[in-house]
Amino acid sequence: EWYPIDELIHDVLGHMQTTLEGREIRTSLPEDLPPVQIDYLQLDQVVTNLLENAARYTAVGSPIEISVDVMDENMLVSIGDYGPGIPPGDLERIFDKFYRVSGTRRSSSSTMGTGLGLAVCRGLIEAHGGRIWAENRLEGGAIFRFTLPLTKGEELDYA
Ligand code: ATP
Ligand code: MG
């Protein structure tokens, strides 16, 4: 289905209100974003997993940033935080099933992770013809980015 990604992001923020309680969420969503051809529930899961990580691995009060940019053939979605970032040698491995950075501290001790979230995100984004990766921000913290192709009417086989 064709869907405006900014609406999906607002929907996710709505159903994550409890997890994101007390957080400043800074969004940068341009006007008139072109709709993307996505499986809504799958993309909801990707954005949910990334926001859950941003909340889980950073200090309780620290802000989370969400931005969307259109770059000729692709839409780029970025979710940044002000946490400890990712050890450079782990930037790729965190997308492996069950891989967790050793000594990872969580802001909420109640939730144990299994190390599946990012592996699932990668599978879903690649099934949509996009890419997903992690970077460390110069100003501190991690930023997760994914792309979605702007397919201009071609049918994408993501199901
Ligand atoms: P699950 O998502 O299955 O509940 P998880 O959060 O441990 O468990 P992933 O979401 O795949 O698994 O993340 C893998 C690892 O990457 C995490 O255990 C953590 O070490 C690291 N990580 C993920 N997101 C961040 C982040 N925003 N900041 C710092 N480290 C992160
Ligand atoms: Mg996770």
Task: Report on this structure.
The structure is a single chain. The chain has 159 residues and is an alpha+beta fold. It contains three helices and seven strands; from the N terminus they run βαββαββαββ. The strands form two sheets. Strands 2-4-5-7-6 form a five-stranded mixed sheet. The longest helix has 17 residues, at 40-56. The mean pLDDT is 92.
Q: If you average the pLDDT, what whole number results?
A: 92
Strand order across the largest sheet: 2-4-5-7-6
The share of residues in helices is: 10-25%
Low-confidence stretches at least 5 residues in length (pLDDT < 50)? none
Q: Taking Cα atoms only, what radius of gyration do you get, to the nearest Å?
A: 15 Å
Number of helices: 3
Shape verdict: globular
Binned strand content: 15-25%
Which properties best describe this structure?
alpha+beta, five-stranded mixed sheet, two-stranded antiparallel sheet, 3 helices, globular, binds adenosine-5'-triphosphate, binds magnesium ion
SSE blueprint and pairings:
Blueprint: E1 2-3, H1 5-15, E2 25-28, E3 36-37, H2 40-56, E4 64-71, E5 74-81, H3 117-127, E6 132-136, E7 142-149
Parallel strand pairs: 2-4
Antiparallel strand pairs: 1-3, 4-5, 5-7, 6-7
Helix pairs in contact: 1-2, 2-3
The structure holds adenosine-5'-triphosphate and magnesium ion.
Domain Histidine kinase: 1-152
Organism: Ktedonobacter racemifer DSM 44963
Protein name: histidine kinase
